[in-house]
TrEMBL record:
InterPro entries: Nucleoside_triphosphatase_NudI (IPR023781), Nudix_hydrolase (IPR020476), NUDIX_hydrolase-like_dom_sf (IPR015797), NUDIX_hydrolase_CS (IPR020084), NUDIX_hydrolase_dom (IPR000086)
Motif stretch (Nudix box): 38-59
UniProt organism field: Yokenella regensburgei
UniProt function note: Catalyzes the hydrolysis of nucleoside triphosphates, with a preference for pyrimidine deoxynucleoside triphosphates (dUTP, dTTP and dCTP).
Listed Pfam families: NUDIX
Recorded family membership: Belongs to the Nudix hydrolase family. NudI subfamily.
GO MF annotation list: dCTP diphosphatase activity; dUTP diphosphatase activity; magnesium ion binding
Domain Nudix hydrolase: 1-141
Cofactor dependence: Mg(2+)
Coiled coil: none
HAMAP family assigned to the protein according to its UniProt record, in alphabetical order: Nudix_NudI (MF_01846)
EC number: 3.6.1.9, 3.6.1.12, 3.6.1.-, 3.6.1.23
Protein's recorded name: Nucleoside triphosphatase NudI
Length: 141
């Protein structure tokens, strides 16, 4: 089984959190709402990987003004690829509290929608199990 280190930004702007609805045909949690993030590349620092993933998934215009390490978690998940193949992966998640200056998001093919959500509305979304646990750990659910 392959192991991946995943960087995961918990992006906040004016008290609301950025959620991304995963594409219905791929990923670890197809169609569910989640936080953005992705794997580190060889030779990349953790913060560089985090900022690269934000740029790749959410666009160049989203300005991140603060990055603070928060916690980590690990588990094993099955990832579905665009071609329908699947792989079981042991994932180590490094979670970061991030603030953004703006809400200018242009998401890539990994997502089908985004939303800025007030803490009291988080429970109204079909959050994947990992994102739900993250917001529980933060005391928001």
């Amino acid at each position: 089984m392959r192991q991946r280190t995943i960087v995961c930004p918990i992006i906040q702007n004016n008290g609301e959190y950025l959620l991304c609805q995963m594409a219905a045909d791929r990923g670890v949690f197809p169609g569910q709402w989640a936080l953005s993030g992705g794997g580190t590349e060889p030779g990349e620092t953790i913060e560089a990987a985090l900022l690269r993933e934000i740029r790749e998934e959410l666009g160049e215009a989203l300005e991140i003004t603060s990055v603070k390490p928060w916690t980590f978690r690990d588990d094993t998940r099955v990832k579905t690829y665009a071609d329908g193949s699947q792989e079981e992966i042991y994932m180590v998640y490094l979670m970061f509290d991030c603030e953004s200056r703006n809400r200018e998001v242009t998401f890539n093919e990994e997502f089908q929608a985004i939303a800025w959500v007030k803490p009291e509305d988080l429970g109204k979304y079909d959050l994947n199990v990992a994102t739900r646990q993250t917001f529980k750990d933060k005391g928001l659910l």
